[in-house]
Amino acid sequence: MRSRFRLILCLFTLLFTSTAWSEQSLLISPPQLEAQLNTLRIIDLRAPNKYQAGHIPHAINIPFAKFNRTKNGVEGFVISHQQFQTLMEQHGIKNSDAVALYSDWAYLEAARIYWVFDLYGHHKIQVLNGGIQAWKKQKRPLETATNTLPPSHYLVEIHPQKLATKLQTLIAAKASPNFVLVDARPVDQYEGKTSLTDRKGHIPNAINLPWYDLVQNRDAQDGYDHEDKPTKMVDWQQLQQKLNQLTQLPKDKKIIVYCNGGMESSILYMALKQLNRDASLYDGSWFEWSKDLSLPVKNPSQEKP
User: Fold this and answer.
1) Cβ neighbours of residue 258 under 8 Å, at least 6 residues apart?
2) How far apart are alpha carbons 74 and 80 in whole angstroms?
3) Range with the lowest mean pLDDT among 214-218, 251-255, 299-303?
4) Domain locations in the chain?
């Protein structure tokens, strides 16, 4: 009888803990992170020289570049699930770990790696809101010691619905009633006035929601943050207002987000998830799409009024 009671108690505790985590924000504030330094696995995504100069206590260093690969001549694709599994095992991350990510560049890198963890089925994952800048601005502790963890066993659980292929994006571009495309690039790039590639414009039938509209304190000139101006995601109500402005986002449609190389759209991916909206991210994004001359492009800047 006593053993049965213990089993019921354990199951209840597990259920409560899982539910409590699922209700947490995808973002974690500096005070919240500092209070959990001994319980979270903290990953610093910056370059090794920045990590060694000073990082959040207990953080390990997995540079952002480790999560990327080149495919068909296009840089910035997510690593394969086998590579991700190996990377986690090498750095001692377990499936059961609650992980907090941070970077220092408008937290674009941290948002991108959030999507990677989500794609490969890691359930307990948060991003430090404001990145290392917010931590430093609040004069919270730093250390220079290199932290490592013993190798672990890790098992990937792929969620293919979170990744959009070029073919799926092409279907959406042909005005499929089941999909809606959202371009997270700056307005000038969406309208075809500027471009980071040889082709200008956007994927046909895409609507535009610039990633920087979803964050605070972005620089007025370049959209990115600086050492003294930590970038944070806008609050829930503002996210909801932004989403409500996009009347093309009914809940019965599948959302595909894209940008130039899968970083800026990760901000939109996280924002949608904050609002309990699922999306898939077109990993190749504009860099892959514009390189394929057989794929259509819409350029509003060349259209006659």
Assistant:
1) 164, 169, 181, 182, 183, 184, 203, 206, 265, 281, 282, 285, 286, 289
2) 15
3) 214-218
4) 25-137, 160-302
Distance between CA atoms of 86 and 154, rounded to whole angstroms?
8
Q: Which residues fall within 8 angstroms of residue 174, CB to CB, at 6 or more apart?
A: 204, 205
- For the domain 160-302, what is the CATH code? 3.40.250.10
In whole angstroms, give the CA distance from residue 2 to residue 182.
55
Q: Which CATH number fits domain 25-137: 1.20.120.140, 3.40.50.150, 3.40.250.10, 3.30.460.10?
A: 3.40.250.10
Per-residue DSSP letters for 22-85?
Answer: HTS-SEE-HHHHHHTTTTSEEEE-S-HHHHHH-B-TT-EE--GGGGEEEETTEEEEEPPHHHHH
Would you state the structure tokens that stand for residue 12, as one six-digit string?
A: 């209840």
Query: Phi, psi at residue 123, to the nearest 5°?
Result: -90, -25
pTM above 0.85, yes or no: yes
Kindly report, residue by residue over 66-85, the tens digit of the pLDDT: 999 999 888 899 999 999 99
Residue with tokens 């605070």: 216
Pair 100, 133: CB distance under 8 Å: no
187-227 pLDDT tens trace: 999 999 999 999 999 999 999 999 988 887 654 344 444 44
Which of helix, strand or coil describes residue 138?
Answer: coil
Q: What is the rounded distance in angstroms from the CA atom of residue 274 to the CA atom of residue 237?
A: 11
What pLDDT does residue 219 have?
47
CB 134 within 8 A of CB 230: yes
Amino acid code (one letter) for 201? G
- The bridge status of strand 206-208 relative to strand 279-282 is unpaired
- Give pLDDT tens digits for 146-189: 999 999 999 999 999 999 999 999 999 998 888 899 999 999 99
